[in-house]
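As a warm-up, study this chain.
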Amino acid sequence: MPTENFETIRYTADVVAISDGRVLLIERGWDPYEGHWALPGGHVDAGETSRAAAARELAEETGVHVAADDLSQIGVFDCPDRDPRGRYITVAYLAVVPAGTVLAAGDDARSARWWPLDDLPPLAFDHADILHAITSN
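Now compare it with the structure written out below.
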């Protein structure tokens, strides 16, 4: 009988937080892409929905608190090579944040900063594709 090959899949959530024509990015403090800019996000914990994980990761990494119910799903991003560590599938969410929201980098982020949507740095992973999904609609 043939054996099936199963890969380990990790489940994550990312957040596109928008305020006044700017997007909130974190500077990664760890590999892969240490020192590069990325959307806030991370692993979905056991027993947690991706929406709840997105709200939690946004707060942990940037100090920005939003209710999970206020997040709108952008889509699922699952290209097999989107993360050099292996197979990661993410659900991306949109958060509209009031202008003047104060940031406080924490958890795994070296820093957090608002960037103009029309002047972004190179982004880690496929985060440029995630941003393109909202700016092309």
